[in-house]
Amino acid sequence: MTTHSLETDLDVSVTEAIADWDRPGDLREHWRIATGLGWTAILDDFSGRRELLDAACGAVTALARGGIALPLRQTLVARAAAETPLSTEDAIAVHPAARGIWAPIADVLVGADGRVTTGAPAEAGRDLADRPYSVSPSSPEIPLRLTGLAEILRCQEMLGAAQGASAEARRYVTERVQFGKPLAAIPAVRTTLGQLKVDVRQLETVTHEARLRLFGDDGALAFALATAREVAAEVAPRIAQTAHQLHGAMGITYEAALHWRTELLWADCDEGARWGDDGIAAIPVDETALWSLTAPGDRGKRDERT
């Protein structure tokens, strides 16, 4: 798949808009800007349009790359699932596919059946990225395409955070001079940077593959989603750990830019553990059928910002 120009356009637009934002900053003020620029309405007329998926992925990835935690992907999914258009453009909307993340401050709740209601649930706690969440006693059945959309955007958010963390680590070891030369000149550091790039590329590859399959065969999509969850669960913590290893103690200070990315990355990884159905049951056990699911699609252009 060749990346649609809308993905690049949204990526650039979001990156420019958040360049001078404080972190964590005023959530409602950031949300006002996001809605004003139309980021939350990208999937309002989704109906399986791949170019809109690409645009949504570009916005979500760029926001996370900048270390900004906003309920953008949750609202995108909720608005795409709503059976009737939301009455307010600036509403924070949450669907059951969000697994409770941001639900306690939601202005609108969209049910698994698409019905729109109000009345946010009680806050059960906050995750590592300081996002409020609620806990539901039951998990409603969600259509595979909608589950896939939510999971793809979660992986895109993780990819953005991973790219941002990798870039911060690379910048630090390039600028930090020790014994007369940058840390990046040390062979062990260069090797670690290479390992970090491989992990980010793995996350990018499985996320891209899931995007390719969202509008195709159910079995192929279920396989890609299960693979994405498995790979993300493995590489995301390692990316965060490696970035902090390269950054040293500076990476955990409040002023440092690194921890805003790694906290979001860890929080998104933990969120994946809340998925009740990992998709394994939908994957065929026949060897021939299973092998056919491993054939990759057309990769097309990929983001090199790692």
Automatic annotation (TrEMBL):
GO terms for cellular component: cytoplasm. The keyword Oxidoreductase applies. GO terms for biological process: fatty acid beta-oxidation using acyl-CoA dehydrogenase. The keyword Flavoprotein applies. Residues 155-262 form the Acyl-CoA dehydrogenase/oxidase C-terminal domain. Keywords: Flavoprotein, Oxidoreductase. One of its GO terms (molecular function) is acyl-CoA dehydrogenase activity. It comes from the Bacteria. Pfam families: Acyl-CoA_dh_1. This is Acyl-CoA dehydrogenase, C-terminal domain. It comes from Amycolatopsis rubida.
